[in-house]
Each structure stands twice: as structure tokens, then as C-alpha cells.
Amino acid sequence: EEERLQEEEDARQDAIRKAYEFQQEEAARREQLFKEYEEEQKKQAMVRNKELEREKERNEREKERKREKERETRRLQEKAREDVPPLVERMYRGEKLRALREQAARRREAPEESKHTSPKAPGKDRPAQAKGGAFWICTDCGFETTVSRRLCDFCDTPRGPAAAVI
């Protein structure tokens, strides 16, 4: 009887020891898994930080590219503003002016009847070609004004050196 009790006690002690060992192994395994999980999280965080850093650098480079483009655009616009007056003069002296001259020649060939009784009567509302004298073409609006007037009859722009006298 004592032997049987001793065997049962030994078996119970052995089961307790095995359960304790199993719990210890499980705890060690859980601890190892947790350490691996933490390491993996650290690695992922480092990778995310590197990606964020690269993204920031990319954004900075993109912003710098945009700023450079804007600077270049502004520089070109400034240069264009400086170049525009001669360009406009050339344009008006060129094709536009040629077309205006042809139009003026056609008007002179077929003069409209004047509202005024006297051909020499002054008046702003009268067409310039009805006076029969020379006139100039405004570089701003293209209106024909007699040579005797210094300001355009239509837009009041002063006659400049680019204005063509016809």
C-alpha cells in the first residue's frame, strides 16, 4: 500500500514537474516570439522611416524643381517683357502695318462721303481719309488719325516713332 501511495505520489510529482517544465518552455518560447516580434517591428519601423525620409527627399527635390521652373519662367517672362516692345514695333511695322496700309489705300481709292459740307472743316468724328491729307496709324489700336493731330482720335495714345505715316 505504501509503495503504491509512493508511486502515485511520485507520478503526481512527476506530472507536476513535467507541467512546470512545459510552462517554462512555453514561457521561454513566448518570450522568444515576443523578442522576434519586437525585432521585426523595429526593422519595419526602420524601413518605414527610411521610406519616409526618401519620400521627404523626393518631395524636396520636386519642390526645388518646381521653384527652379518658376524662376526660369519668371526669368523668361522678364526677358519677354524686355523684348516685347521691339517685337511689337516690328510686328506693327511688318505684317500688321502692311495690312493697315492696304486697307487705307482701298479707303482712299473709294472715299466715303463726308458728313461735313466743307472738306476742310475740323472734327474728331470725321474719318481721317476724308480730309484728303496724310495720316498716321496708331500702334495701339490701329486707328487712322491725321498727321496734324498728336494724339490718336480713338484711344488718345500719343503718336510715337513707331507710328507709320501714310
Provide an overview of this structure.
The chain is mainly alpha-helical. The protein folds into 2 domains: 1-88; 111-166, no CATH class. The protein is built from 1 helix and 3 strands; from the N terminus they run αβββ. It has a 3-stranded antiparallel beta sheet with strand order 2-1-3, covered by helices on one side. The N and C termini lie far apart (143 Å). Residues 114-131 have low confidence and may be disordered.
Biggest pleated sheet: 3 strands, antiparallel
Order of helices and strands: HEEE
Q: Round the mean pLDDT to the nearest integer and report it.
A: 81
Low-pLDDT stretches are 114-131
Give the beta-strand count: 3
Protein name: RanBP2-type domain-containing protein
Biased composition (Basic and acidic residues): 38-128
Region (Disordered): 38-130
Summed up:
With 166 residues, the protein is mainly alpha-helical. Helix content is 65%, strand content 5%.
